[in-house]
Structures are given as C-alpha cells and as structure tokens.
Amino acid sequence: MGGTNDVIETDVLVVGGGINGAGIARDAAGRGLRVVLCEKDDLASHTSSASSKLIHGGLRYLEHYEFRLVRKALAEREVLLRSAPHIMHPLRFVMPHDSGQRPVWLIRAGLYLYDTLARREFLPGSEAVLLRGHPAGEPLKEMFTRGFVYSDGWVDDARLVVLNAIAARERGASILTRTACTALTRDADHWHATLAHAGGRTTKVRARSLVNAAGPWAAQFLQVATGVAPRRALRLIKGSHIVVPRLFSHDYAYIFQHPTAASFSRCPTSRSTR
Ligand SMILES: Cc1cc2nc3c(=O)[nH]c(=O)nc-3n(C[C@H](O)[C@H](O)[C@H](O)COP(=O)(O)OP(=O)(O)OC[C@H]3O[C@@H](n4cnc5c(N)ncnc54)[C@H](O)[C@@H]3O)c2cc1C
After folding, report:
1. What's the CA-to-centroid distance between 18 and ligand 1, angstroms?
2. Which residues have CB under 8 Å from 267's CB, separation 6+?
3. How far is the CA of 49 from the centre of ligand 1 (A)?
C-alpha cells in the first residue's frame, strides 16, 4: 500500500467517468481549463453503457410542452450525428396506430414539430404509412393497418463516453480511471479532494471547482466524501430492458403507445393485458 505522494492543482475536478463526466471534462478542457477527471471503476462502466443507446430529441416531452428542451436535444442530435458517424447511425421508428391511442391529428402535429423544431441534415422526416404491404407491418397484428414513421439516432453509448474522454485528454485533461474521490473539504476558494487509486496510492487535488458527475451515486458521494448529508434527496429512477430473439429482418424499430386513459376506462379488459 502506498501513501499520499502527489498534489495536483486544477481548475475543474470532475468526479465520475460516465457520459456526463466525460462530456463536461471535454467541454471544460476545450475552453482551456485545467481538468482532472476521476472514475472509481472504468469509463462508462455503469449507467452510460446500459442505456437504450438512443440519440433522441424526446418526442414524448412535446406532450408536456417542453419545446425548448426538445429543440435543444434535437440540435444536439445533429451535432452528435455529424461528429461521430462511425459510432452512430440513423434509426427509423415505426409507431403503429389504432383508435385507442392518441388521435391522428395530435400525432401528426407532434411529429411535425419533431421534424421542424431544429435544423435537420442527417435524418429523413416523418411520414404516415399504410402497414399492409409495408415491411414493418408484417410482424404486427392485423388490427394495425396504419402508422407513422419517424427518425432518431442510435449510438454505441460506451464508446461515446470513451471518445469524449480521449478528446478531453487530447485537450490536456488528466483522466484517472480506477480512482475514487473519497474525501472532500472546502475552503474559501478551493476544493481539497482525496483520490484513492486502485493500488492503494492516494492523490490530493486542489481544485477551483468541482463537478459531481457521479450519476446514481451523486448524493452518496457527497455524503461519504464530505460527511454532510445532502439537503435534498435524490430520487433514482430505473429502466428495464427485455431482450428477445429477433422477430423480423427489416431495420425499423418499433415504438408502441399505451392506450390513452379514456380508452382504458372504456375497455376494462385492456388493464389485464398491460
Ligand atoms: C434503462 C435506461 C435507458 C436509457 N436510455 C437512454 C437513451 O436511450 N438515450 C439517452 O440519451 N439516455 C438514456 N438513458 C439515460 C442515460 O443513460 C443517463 O442519463 C446517463 O448514462 C447518465 O450518465 P452519468 O454520467 O450521469 O452517470 P453514470 O454513467 O452512472 O456515471 C457516473 C459515474 O460516476 C462514478 N462514480 C460514482 N461515485 C464516484 C466516486 N466517489 N469517485 C469516482 N467516480 C465515482 C461511477 O462509477 C460511474 O461510472 C437511459 C437510462 C437508463 C437507466
């Protein structure tokens, strides 16, 4: 076991090597700041390699009138598709439609906004399709005769993180993997952090600013490192992926809507099939 033998002076200490940490490190280093990123395990070893791998604008947020958010996300989708086409590609989504779902005019309006809120260079726009005779209609139940097709992007999420970390390092950042931030204190101008490396060695870092990019561990990290309970609790959400054998040979993805609340109340049996 080694002891403390280094002190690093930096402008920004980023704790966490997921997509947020790596992206922030890249951005800060690109602005000429001195950056240290520490990741307790490996880059993208947690949430950022277990996502659904979509580069999307957030179609469903339009229903909550989050137009500005969706526009920013759509613009960023273009940036990503342009900057790393070797790890991303367009993906066409088929949304089968039936009368129990949102009305056609609403879906058309939503997709029109999705197509036009931000400049679109790489992805084709949305369209209505007749599913009979369409390759995407083949595996579906016969009741689905029409639907909509729209675009989003697919990305190799873990590689996106690693590429951001490499780009940050090329701009001068230190990327320290298998290095946990274990203690943190603050004086008037600086954060003083202890970084514990996998072999037992520790490094002290004096940083002008700190970015807590610890993802699901953000609250726990603060509590353990500072000994102070965060004033606000962090509510974690969980997503699940169910992997099934491939059922069709075309390249479309499907997105299925839940029946609307109104059609649920009209059709009690649909509850048991949800
Ligand atoms: C099921 C699911 C599907 C999703 N699908 C999509 C999608 O399709 N498209 C999309 O854009 N988003 C998607 N998301 C959201 C996206 O995956 C997350 O928003 C994103 O990965 C969060 O990244 P992060 O960097 O904040 O966290 P993480 O990737 O979890 O990174 C945090 C890192 O901090 C490190 N860490 C923690 N404590 C310390 C410490 N003390 N010292 C050093 N390091 C520490 C951890 O080891 C971890 O690697 C999905 C999320 C889920 C759960």
Report:
1. 5
2. 100, 259
3. 8
Say which residue the tokens 């931030």 belong to: 181
pTM: 0.90
> Which residue type sits at 177?
T
The 10s digit of each residue's pLDDT in 51-98 is: 999 999 999 999 999 999 999 999 999 999 999 999 999 999 999 998
Start-to-end C-alpha separation, the chain:
55
Q: Domains along the chain?
A: 4-49+158-226 (3.50.50.60), 90-154+242-273 (3.30.9.10)
| Residue 20 Cα: closest atom of ligand 1 | 25
User: Over the chain, what is the mean pLDDT?
Assistant: 91
Q: If you measure from the C-alpha of residue 107 to the centroid of ligand 1, how many angstroms do you get, rounded to a whole number? A: 31
Task: Give the residues surrounding ligand 1 with Cβ less than 6 Å away.
Answer: 15-21, 38-41, 45-48, 51-54, 180-181, 213-217, 221, 239
Closest residue by CA, ligand 1 atom 4: 51
